[in-house]
């Protein structure tokens, strides 16, 4: 009996012993886990994000360039990622994401207990346990991490801690938006905004249900489920997402089946700074921003980084006008280029005209030295002889053509000569009252031709300079458009106005018209009249006025400037002409509306710059002079259906405009440059056309003059703008000043000049 009691006592003792041991182990384990979490949160197992990090994660946001009508026209980025708010996300994408990735997202506080237990007991074979918040934590602060199990466990614990902190710091909707903003969808697209543009050429709000399902499917593995490389795998994954949506009652079974039957349809386009809309303007803006960041610092004194700080640059560019301008340039230049190639077929030194072999060699050598090939070989310490020899070896290359890029084999030196054949163009359109630049086309194709012919390239302006001479005469000599002047032989003798030898300008047709009004003289672009006016006013007065009109290039104080022997950019010419349309007030061209930081706070707003140049009466008198050009001069083809030489290259003709238009054509020496400056009351547009090298040109005025080379771009562009009623481009009269003191309504007389297409030339002797 005693033995039995002893056994019971020992059994009770053993149970109590193991109970105590169990609870001791349990307590130590619990304390160990708690300590582990505590140490992890303190950063003993690697740094943890601070409160400030959670508020402002290192997000590498692309800077966005936005047009005046709210269209995203480009980005600056190292990582192509744009910030979206929850309200910017389409409802179908949010539903698909929650249904597929985290069905209990709105129920948990960062960690899904049920999912975690399921993953533990199934050893991960029955689905993972990561919530969207945990995945966000990993994306923001860890990345993929280590494959080594102990390190992976530490990382998972850190993810839990960060997830809980994120849930405390942000709302569920903010977490969803952040997650959609940080995921890498491949093809240089980070975030839903970039992915929508890259794969579907859409804004996120315009995504359809099946497109949203494709993107959500990519969250599992964007490398594996890449729509470009693996369309079948993507379709299968998309259909899984759609099934999850149907299971969650977000779409019906019938809708699920309809959507699952759809093919994978992409509109794939990699976002690149060399392609897309307004490429030349975006590069001009990039250069501007390089200086801006040094002058406009962050509150902490550091510089903004346009490649990662997620700035929003709101510009004055109108995406519709920009599109029409690019279309106009492309349509006409493609057309005119055909004629240029036809002319050059018989030119042994194509595309150069009337230059020596030594001059040709100098041009080619300069192009070689400016090339990427030369720079790369120089870095490799190659000798100049070796570099030159490499330019004579045939190689595979992709070249630009107006029918698309083409693979070919040629020597680099031949490719230089080939590219010298291409006619270039510059176009800028601006509101004269505000200075807002609405369209900017700096060339024919930024990928192949980076030189900007709007803000970068100053070219000789020809007869488009003459209105500055006439404006000076009206101001200095109290003349009017209706005053008469003799068109006859004229000479400025050596010593007068700094002339080093006798200068006798002649008209392009070598004839004289006798007495003409100033309006008729400008319409016919009579050289002798311009020369007489600058002789009376002095070159100094004309230069002074031109500077007030915003022209920044150096202008020689010589009478010959009256015929346009002056280099000016398209940008400056548009601003100068806008002064006439703005009643004599110069407004500096403006391309920025404001700049915001990634939080939407305005950090910069430019202050408009303007100053008075001419009184209203003089400015209006110049407008009336310029209207004569489109009524009876070289711009009359804007109003007629009549023919003329080169008419098969007048892109978009007939234009048949009936509204008031003030304008001026210009053609420079040997047809190297063709210009047209055109104005309506609320839009001034300048167009230049010519080859990169002035010795590459049309042989005759028929195609090389401004009326054929540049005016058609303006006409085509304006037809597009007028067809778009939302743009509200004016067809009305220019505002006439009250109590106008200058006679501008001249008595009727037979027009001196009809539409002659061979009346423009600029040499030391004559120009129109």
TrEMBL record:
Pathway(s) served: Cell wall biogenesis; peptidoglycan biosynthesis
Lineage summary:
Bacteria, Pseudomonadati, Bacteroidota, Flavobacteriia, Flavobacteriales
Keyword annotations for this protein, in alphabetical order, are: Carboxypeptidase, Cell membrane, Cell shape, Cell wall biogenesis/degradation, Glycosyltransferase, Hydrolase, Membrane, Multifunctional enzyme, Peptidoglycan synthesis, Protease, Transferase, Transmembrane, Transmembrane helix
Q: Which family does it belong to?
A: In the N-terminal section; belongs to the glycosyltransferase 51 family.
Give its localization: Cell membrane
Q: Where is the Glycosyl transferase family domain?
A: 72-245
Per UniProt, residues of the Penicillin-binding protein transpeptidase domain are 428-682
TM segments?
25-45
Catalysed reaction(s) here are:
[GlcNAc-(1->4)-Mur2Ac(oyl-L-Ala-gamma-D-Glu-L-Lys-D-Ala-D-Ala)](n)-di-trans,octa-cis-undecaprenyl diphosphate + beta-D-GlcNAc-(1->4)-Mur2Ac(oyl-L-Ala-gamma-D-Glu-L-Lys-D-Ala-D-Ala)-di-trans,octa-cis-undecaprenyl diphosphate = [GlcNAc-(1->4)-Mur2Ac(oyl-L-Ala-gamma-D-Glu-L-Lys-D-Ala-D-Ala)](n+1)-di-trans,octa-cis-undecaprenyl diphosphate + di-trans,octa-cis-undecaprenyl diphosphate + H(+); Preferential cleavage: (Ac)2-L-Lys-D-Ala-|-D-Ala. Also transpeptidation of peptidyl-alanyl moieties that are N-acyl substituents of D-alanine
Does the keyword field hold Cytoplasm? no
Protein name, UniProt field: Transglycosylase domain-containing protein
SUPFAM superfamilies per record: beta-lactamase/transpeptidase-like, Lysozyme-like
Pfam families found in the cross-reference section: Transgly, Transpeptidase
């Amino acid at each position: 009996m005693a033995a039995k009691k002893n056994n019971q006592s020992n059994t009770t003792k053993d149970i109590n012993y193991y109970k105590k041991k169990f609870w001791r182990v349990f307590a130590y384990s619990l304390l160990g886990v708690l300590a582990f979490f505590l140490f992890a949160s303190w950063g003993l197992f690697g740094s943890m994000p601070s409160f400030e990090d959670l508020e402002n994660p290192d997000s590498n946001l692309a800077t966005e360039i936005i047009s005046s009508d709210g269209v995203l026209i480009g980005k600056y980025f190292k990582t192509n990622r744009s910030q979206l708010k929850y309200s910017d996300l389409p409802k179908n994408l949010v539903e698909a994401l929650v249904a597929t990735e985290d069905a209990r997202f709105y129920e948990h506080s960062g960690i899904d207990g049920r999912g975690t237990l399921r993953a533990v007991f199934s050893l991960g074979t029955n689905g993972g346990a990561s919530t969207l918040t945990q995945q966000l934590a990993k994306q923001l602060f860890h990345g993929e991490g280590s494959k080594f199990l102990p390190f992976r466990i530490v990382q998972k614990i850190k993810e839990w801690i960060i997830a809980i902190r994120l849930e405390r710091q942000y709302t569920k909707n903010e977490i969803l938006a952040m997650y959609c903003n940080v995921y890498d969808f491949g093809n240089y697209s980070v975030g839903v905004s970039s992915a929508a543009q890259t794969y579907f050429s859409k804004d996120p709000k315009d995504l359809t249900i099946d497109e949203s399902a494709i993107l959500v499917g990519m969250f599992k593995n964007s490398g594996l489920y890449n729509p470009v490389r693996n369309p079948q795998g993507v379709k299968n994954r998309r259909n899984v997402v759609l099934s999850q949506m149907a299971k969650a009652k977000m779409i019906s079974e019938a809708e699920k089946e309809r959507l699952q039957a759809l093919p994978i349809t992409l509109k794939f386009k990699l976002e690149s700074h060399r392609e897309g809309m307004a490429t030349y303007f975006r590069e001009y803006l990039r250069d501007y921003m390089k200086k801006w960041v040094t002058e406009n610092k962050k509150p902490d004194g550091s510089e903004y980084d346009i490649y990662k700080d997620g700035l929003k640059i709101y510009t004055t560019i109108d995406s519709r006008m920009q599109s029409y301008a690019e279309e106009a340039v492309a349509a006409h230049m493609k057309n005119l280029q055909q004629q240029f190639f036809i002319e050059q077929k018989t030119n042994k030194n194509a595309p150069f005209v009337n230059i020596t072999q030594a001059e040709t060699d100098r041009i080619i050598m300069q192009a070689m030295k400016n090339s990427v090939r030369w720079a790369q070989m120089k870095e490799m310490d190659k000798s100049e002889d070796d570099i030159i020899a490499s330019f004579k070896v045939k190689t595979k290359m992709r070249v630009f053509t107006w029918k698309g890029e083409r693979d070919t084999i040629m020597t680099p030196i031949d490719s230089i000569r080939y590219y010298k054949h291409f006619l270039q163009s510059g176009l800028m359109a601006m509101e004269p009252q505000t200075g807002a630049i609405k369209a900017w086309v700096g060339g024919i194709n930024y990928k192949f031709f980076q030189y900007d012919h709007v803000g970068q390239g100053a070219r000789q302006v020809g007869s488009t300079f003459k209105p500055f001479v006439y404006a000076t005469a009206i101001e200095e000599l109290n003349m009017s458009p209706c005053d008469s002047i003799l068109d006859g032989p004229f000479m400025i003798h050596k010593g007068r106005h700094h002339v080093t030898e006798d200068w006798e300008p002649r008209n392009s047709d070598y004839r004289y018209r006798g007495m003409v009004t100033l309006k008729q003289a400008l319409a016919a672009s009579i050289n002798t009249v311009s020369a007489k006016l600058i002789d009376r006013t002095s070159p100094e007065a004309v230069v002074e006025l031109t500077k007030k009109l915003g022209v920044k290039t150096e202008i020689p104080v010589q009478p010959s400037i009256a015929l346009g022997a002056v280099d000016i950019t398209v940008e400056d010419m548009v601003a100068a002409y806008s002064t006439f349309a703005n009643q004599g007030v110069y407004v500096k061209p403006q391309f920025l509306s404001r700049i915001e930081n990634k939080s939407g706070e305005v950090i910069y707003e430019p202050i408009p710059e303007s100053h008075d140049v001419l009184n209203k009466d003089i400015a209006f008198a110049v407008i009336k002079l310029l209207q004569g050009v489109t009524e009876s001069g070289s711009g009359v083809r804007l109003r007629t259906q009549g023919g003329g030489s080169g008419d098969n290259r007048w892109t978009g003709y007939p234009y048949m405009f009936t509204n008031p238009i003030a304008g001026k054509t210009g053609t420079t020496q040997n047809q190297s440059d063709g210009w047209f400056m055109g104005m309506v009351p609320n839009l001034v547009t300048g167009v230049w056309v010519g080859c990169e090298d002035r010795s590459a040109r049309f042989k005759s005025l028929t195609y090389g003059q401004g009326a054929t080379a540049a005016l058609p771009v303006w006409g085509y562009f304006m037809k597009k703008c007028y067809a778009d009623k939302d743009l509200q481009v004016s067809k009305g009269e220019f505002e006439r000043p009250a109590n106008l003191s200058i006679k501008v309504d001249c008595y009727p007389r037979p027009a001196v000049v009809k539409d002659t297409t061979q009346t423009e030339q600029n040499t030391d002797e004559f120009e129109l």
